[in-house]
Design a protein that fits this description.
mainly alpha, Methane Monooxygenase Hydroxylase, Chain G, domain 1
Length: 200
C-alpha cells in the first residue's frame, strides 16, 4: 500500500512537471487499488485483534497500522484530486518564482521516507519526516503569497492562480499525512505518539 502511495504521488509530480495528462490519467486506477488495500489490511488487523488478542508491542503495531492505512488512503485521494486539476494547468508554463515543483518534490520525499521508516522501524527517519513538515508548510505560505501577487498584478489570472493554490494545498495535506504516518511509526516502536492527526 505504501508503494502504491509513492507511485501515485510520483505520477502526480511527473504529470505536473512534464505537463503530461497521460500520466495524470494513471492515478485514479491506482487510487482504487489503494482503497482496496485499505479494506484488506483493515480486515486483517481486525481478525488479529479478535483472534489473537494481542498485547503490548503487538497491539501497538496493529493499532498503528489501522491509523496509517487511513492516512495512506487519504494520500491516494489527494493525488487523484491533483490529477483532476492538472489538465487545466498543463497548457500553461508554471512561473519559476512559484515553487510548486520544489514543494511537490519535498512532499514525495516525505511520503517515501515515512513508508521507509515503517518498513525499517527506524525512529530517526520518522523524526526527520516530522521535521520536514515545516519546510513543506513554508513552501505553501510562499506559494500562496506569490499567487496573491500574481492576481494583484493581473486579475485575469485569478482562475489559474486558484487552481495552482489547490494543487499546493493538496501537496501540503499529503505532507501532513506523511507526518502523521511517521508519528504512528514512533508510536509503534516507542509507545509515544509523535504527530497529531491532520484535520480534513
Amino acid at each position: 500500500m505504501g508503494a502504491l502511495c509513492e507511485e501515485v504521488i510520483s505520477l502526480a509530480v511527473s504529470a505536473l512537471i512534464q505537463k503530461d495528462d497521460a500520466l495524470a490519467v494513471k492515478i485514479a486506477p491506482l487510487d482504487h487499488e489503494i482503497d482496496e488495500k485499505e479494506r484488506q489490511i483493515e480486515a486483517m488487523c481486525l481478525r488479529l485483534l479478535l483472534q489473537q488478542q494481542p498485547v503490548a508491542g503487538d497491539l501497538r503495531q496493529i493499532s498503528a497500522a489501522l491509523k496509517m492505512i487511513t492516512d495512506m488512503e487519504r494520500i491516494g485521494d489527494q493525488a487523484e484530486d491533483i490529477a483532476e486539476i492538472l489538465p487545466f494547468l498543463n497548457d500553461r508554463t508554471l512561473p519559476e518564482h512559484i515553487k510548486i515543483r520544489e514543494m511537490a518534490k519535498a512532499t514525495i520525499r516525505m511520503v517515501t521516507d515515512s513508508v521507509d521508516a515503517y518498513v525499517k522501524q527506524d525512529t530517526s527517519i520518522a523524526k526527520a519526516v516530522i521535521a520536514s513538515d515545516d519546510m513543506v508548510d513554508d513552501y505553501f505560505i510562499d506559494i500562496k503569497s506569490s499567487l496573491i501577487s500574481l492576481i494583484a498584478q493581473n486579475p485575469t489570472e485569478g482562475e489559474y492562480a486558484l487552481d495552482l493554490l489547490m494543487v499546493a494545498k493538496y501537496f501540503e495535506r499529503i505532507g501532513d499525512h506523511a507526518t502523521n504516518i511517521a508519528g504512528w511509526v514512533l508510536f509503534s516502536v516507542t509507545g509515544e505518539k509523535g504527530a497529531q492527526p491532520p484535520t480534513d
